[in-house]
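Query structure, 196 tokens:
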């Protein structure tokens, strides 16, 4: 099912022996556009820190707005300390996989890039072939494959302030350091794309 990534923020996270916190954000691979981790803000009684949980460990119950994980609270509490406000290194990812077990996604011959926060993209300026057009306000992903399919772009006030879905196939270039992305479309072509 395709859905806004923002709709998953706030889902409760439940271990085999109880609730530990809520999803605060997600990290995705900036080459494959695949969600790799949920950032879970643990409850204050559980040290209130943020931990990374691999997307393949998450079992979702949309009706209850819960992600179930196959670990105990103690396993999560003893997971490697990772500062989620800083870039995550491959060594830190490797430490996570050693802690929880499982197959490392980068061992599948998949070309991987860096990890980016889904919220980090909010506000990125979107440029089309004939000018600046709007800014990213959300991502659409397939929650079965964890692949980002489209960008949600909030258009400028001159276009009525609507939002459009831009499939990733139209992405020409990302300028991460500048907070900008470039599409292979004109303003008129983007305005004809599916609106939300």
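Result returned for the query:
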């Amino acid at each position: 099912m395709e859905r806004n990534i923002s709709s998953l923020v706030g889902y409760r996270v439940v271990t085999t022996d109880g609730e530990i916190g809520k999803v605060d954000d997600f990290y995705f691979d900036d080459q494959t556009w695949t969600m790799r981790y949920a950032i879970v803000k643990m409850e204050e009684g559980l040290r209130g820190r943020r931990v990374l949980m691999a997307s393949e460990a998450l079992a979702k119950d949309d009706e209850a707005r819960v992600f179930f994980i196959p670990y105990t609270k103690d396993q999560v509490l003893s997971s490697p300390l990772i500062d989620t406000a800083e870039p995550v290194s491959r060594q830190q990812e490797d430490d996570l996989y050693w802690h929880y077990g499982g197959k490392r996604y980068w061992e599948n011959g998949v070309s991987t890039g860096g990890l980016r926060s889904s919220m980090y993209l909010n506000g990125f300026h979107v440029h089309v072939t004939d000018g600046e057009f709007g800014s990213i306000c959300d991502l659409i992903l397939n929650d079965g494959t964890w692949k980002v399919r489209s960008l949600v772009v909030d258009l400028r006030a001159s276009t009525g302030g609507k939002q459009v879905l831009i499939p990733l196939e139209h992405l020409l270039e990302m300028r991460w350091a500048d907070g900008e992305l470039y599409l292979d479309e004109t303003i008129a072509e983007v305005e004809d794309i599916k609106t939300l």
